[in-house]
Structure formats: structure tokens, C-alpha cells
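[Automated response] Your request has been received and processed.

Submitted sequence:
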Amino acid sequence: MSKISNVRLPALAANNYSPDQVNQLIRSLEQILFQLNNTYTPQVTEENQAGLDWFTGPEGPDIQSVLEDNNYFAYGSFLDFTDQTCTTVNTATPITWDTTAQSLHVKVGTDTSHIEFTRSGRYYIAFTAQMRSTSASAKNFWFWPRVNGTDITGSTMKNTLSANDQALTVARSGIFHLDKGDYLQALWAVDDLDATLESYAATAFAPATPSVTLMVTSIEYG
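Generated structure:
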């Protein structure tokens, strides 16, 4: 309900109102009723809106008060369809991304190993990598995330392949708080250069396989 505009009512009469004063009073009351009918918000609607505001939260001085996304949510789906290799053993190597399937407020940077965030919040992030061994010896793979150039403590995955032409997919998900302007990287390392991140072409019965995937979904704003 919005504020009612000032409506002039007839002055108090000493004894009786004249017909003109009665007509003026009626017109004034009609004007008040018109404003009420055109600005009234039902209580149920106000309660629904309050609930919606609780979920969407504030953005600066403004409240997100619509059922539509209104650019509030952030997400991204990133893949790479090239084979990736390390050039040196036991050396941290950034994983790169050549394909963006979907993106809102999250993007691949000019440095294609950077996933950049343009909206602060808490994000659910899921990562997969398609490992491959190209020789019959044991080889170790390590994977971990890095934010703004700093490794995330206690986050490394280690896997071992040993058979020739052996392939295996590794996956992990986690929740990260990222600020506007932050960037995320996925790092990997191997102790044998016959270890690769492999992509596979489409077959007659199955679509192509990316070497790596990264899915990003916002779960909390701010």
C-alpha cells in the first residue's frame, strides 16, 4: 500500500453543510477510495514478497524482489576437447578450457586456465578429468584447485594408472567462496610423461569425450 495523496476535504460548517459542500465531500471520499483500490497490496502478496526477499537478498541498496533470475544467479559449464600434457614431471601445470557450454557471471579468462568470477558468492564446483596411460608402467596423477594463484590447502587428489592405454575418469566437487574479480584454476602434475588428460572423438554410438570438465553453480550470494 502506498501513501495516499493529500485530499482536500470541505471545511467544518458552522451549522449545516451546503449541497455544494456535501458534493465536495463525496468527491473527496471517492478520490480516497480510488487511490486505496489502486495501491493496495494484499497481505498474502506482501508475505510472499518478504519470503522471496529472504532468498534473493539485497544487492547494494536494492532488494531483488522478482521471481525472475534478474541476473542474480551465477553459473558456468566449461570443457576442453584437446589432449593435455605436462612438459616436465613433478611440476604444477594449469589445466586449460577451450569450450564454454553455458555461462552467467562466470567466464574463461584471457588466460584460458583462469575461470573468472564477476559476482561474489558461495559456489558449488564440480571437476572431472579423463586420465590416460600410454605405457605399461605405474604413473601418478595429482589434481588440486588454486584461487588467485594460491593453492587450496588439503585439496589434492592422487591417482595411479599402470596399464598401457588404460583410461580412468577422476571427479571431485566442493564449495568455494569467491569474490568479484577472483579467478579459479585447476592444477595437475604427473611423475611420468606418458600420462595425459585425453579427449576422445565421437563414435557411431556415443558423443565426444572432453579431457576435462568444470561445472559452477552459485548457492549463496555475497
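Summary generated for your ticket: The radius of gyration is 31 Å. Residues 19-39 form the longest helix (21 residues).
If you did not submit this request, please reply to this message.
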